[in-house]
Amino acid sequence: MASAVGKPAYLVGIDLGTTNTVVAYANAADAADAPAVIELFAIEQLVAPGEVGARPLLPSLRYHPAAGELAAGDLTLPWPQQDVAGVEHAVLGALARQLGAQVPGRLVASAKSWLSHANVDRQAPILPWGAAADVAKVSPVAASASYLAYVRAAWNHRFPDAPLAQQELVLTIPASFDEGARALTLEAARMAGLPALRLVEEPQAAFYDFLQRRRATLRADLADTRRILVCDVGGGTTDFSLIDVAFDDDGEPQLTRSSVGNHLILGGDNMDLALAHLVEARLAAGQEGGMKLSAARLSQLMERCRAAKELLLSADAPEKTTVTLLGAGSRLIGGSRSADVTREEVAAMVVDGFFPKVELGEVGRKGRAGIVEFGLPYAQDAAITRHLASFLQQHAGALPDTLLLNGGVFRADALARRLADTLAHWRGQPLTILHNDNPDVAVARGAVAYALARRGQAPRIGGGSPRSYFLVLGEAGKDHRAVCILPRGSASGEEIRLTERLFALRLGRPVRFHLASSIAETGTPPQLGDLVDLDAGDYLRLPPLASVLHARDGGNDKRDITVQLATVMTEVGTLEVHCVAEADASQRWLLEFQLRGEEEAPAETSTVPPRVKEAIEKIERIFGGKAQKVDAREVRQLRQHLERGLGGRESWDTPLLRHLFDALLLRARGRRRSAEHERAWLNLAGYCLRPGYGDALDPWRIEQLWAMFDTGVQHHKDSQVCAEWWTLWRRVAGGLSSEQQLRLLDDFAFNLQADAAQRGSRPVTLVNGSDDDMLRLGASLERIPGAYKAEVGAWLLKRLEKAGKKGEAADTNTLWALARVGARQPFHGSAHEVVDSAAVADWLQVLLALDWKKVEPAAFAATHLARMTGDRSRDIADDLRATILARLKAVGAPPLWQAMVSEVTQLDEANTKRMLGEALPPGLKLIN
Fold it and tell me: How far is residue 204 CA from its own chain's centroid?
């Protein structure tokens, strides 16, 4: 069927799941005349090498084969397929699952869970997590895009006259996805060639599927229902939604989605992991020294355990099954090991471990120290029933009387019964259970039903925005107050303008706003303009909104302009915020969420000291455009003069520091007046922008500062100027991109390796640096690849070896740098860029040869190299960990150091200061 110009031929729903991707569709023309027939789209995919079969489920998996592993004919599809993620010969779908269960370390799984993991760069190539260096890697966004692009190619092959991009598309997402994860999902769709689509939340889609299937008997089905709980436990996430039911004068049910839950990385993957740990222990039984699998092998075992779980929880399950972990390489068969798992064991582990009997008053445990297997921060509390209790406590009104379950885990009757019994216990009476005939495909079918409802051809769920959104205020004394800019329940597509607050913004300069959201009902829901206390409720801080407002004509206009904020929950399903000129509403600027890089660390905003104006006047006097008679001594004493008015610089918090940096940046040209000017400017600028992030405008500040890098310093023969230059870049390294850090690494390498002839031809813009300058700089480059860090570490070990041969004590700075370079838990870098644990193990052997009682920094370095993260791809072997821990105890190392090696912990302020080389601004905390 061909698409008419401007009119889609089909309504298509895509469930981009953690475990499987499913597509359903309905004929758009037929839907207008009669109840639509929703069909599943059988996706052609490789089911064995060289064999293509159509399946309703496309496993959301990628396998990256080794060179020559598969013949060209093994990967032939009915259509030409180019991987949008850029990996040659990548395998997607059923065959990827089969190959991933046989070969460790080459399977990309759970990409969807990574989209909501804000502590890594979700657009960086980090998957498969923990894979070897020779395995191609892709970003979570690119992996998600590849599944959608595959669906697009398969659809276009079957319907060449109705390309998928021209159909009416609905893509499902977890209800708990925040604005950042939603924006990245849309970015993945754009990468896949599907730029125009709508988003619908998965629990809603599951309920739309029920409405469509039971349309003829809906009034009777819901006659005794007033509140429905939709519990959707997928492969990677758990979602709760409440839907309220009322009846109009004609007796027809009116449906309103009233509440959604917070994001939980908790689902089938966690169950598979728990079972894998059980099987791992059994495989190790009887083996000398035990056996702990690598991250890649554990991932392989998880795939085996997933299949065992599904078998043993099925309706006609056997008493037990055998889980076999194949050997590697030439020992593929001979090196295999097996363990039996019984039906009762799996039922007890999953039912009692993930759905324990709890009371309604219990609260889900929160914390940052949850399981981080494979780098993902799984929910600390695995009890889904306890999270459900917390969710229901947050929302006013009666307990739900009706339950709809979705997700493949609920194919197990024991899980469905336990959840229903728990809710019945809380209510004191049984619930109505709504039938879900096929949890694996209900969300995709429901996405099509949602498209029909939008056309008025099926029942529709109302409710508008599931969250209230707030603008965080920054006035003195109101640091934790926020004003409501979009009340919960606001209709999609209707713009709401906050008219009672005006903002004076300067064109050509960046502007940023901090937002928060809330799903909870505590008393009367806030209305537009209402003030709330962020410390008095369950509020989620969102990524900051930031933009640079340019004049309409694109000119260099720097005038101030008065604007209002306009907010809308778009028809697509995402939040949009505009600055609208008060004098001319046609002048609008879209603010965008900042999604790259590290999560902005929470900072305590405070009142800028009243004497900051005097401080800026002092900066103007030294560096301002108007030449003033200032002697060298006054320039050198600028910092002391600032401290007299503002207090010791250790007390300067982030807002004050950034005020001062902005003043220095505006007067950057003044640094070239003398060597004293340049030293003072570089020292203060680096100090005031450290650690390079922590304020929403810091990316813009880094961009302005980086523009000066290629010009170098004016007084390049002054050694102190050169030292301050490298100190500045070390201090702000946390805000630099990987490309910028690699550029610094080039200069690092030149300063260490260039011979006399090369140094003689050095460009004057390449600033000279001493070995100590380079040592501190190289240790701060956390965003360079782990292989480069390993080279830096090798250079540091040579320094230690050289000192040892001379009979000198190990250099404290060298040991500190080794701790930074090889740290298992980076401060600002992504965890995928740490040095390989095998290399770190070799470094630890060098440190063990030192006398830690005499050389305390060696113990400090060993602590950070052996620090436990819970992520097998980063952690050292257990026997080496035990050796390090025993040595730390023997030398009386601080209890925190011992805890860092034996369990997952966070650094205290003193250790953070020592690790970074100086203190962070007051109120700014690194999440590590």
Answer: 24
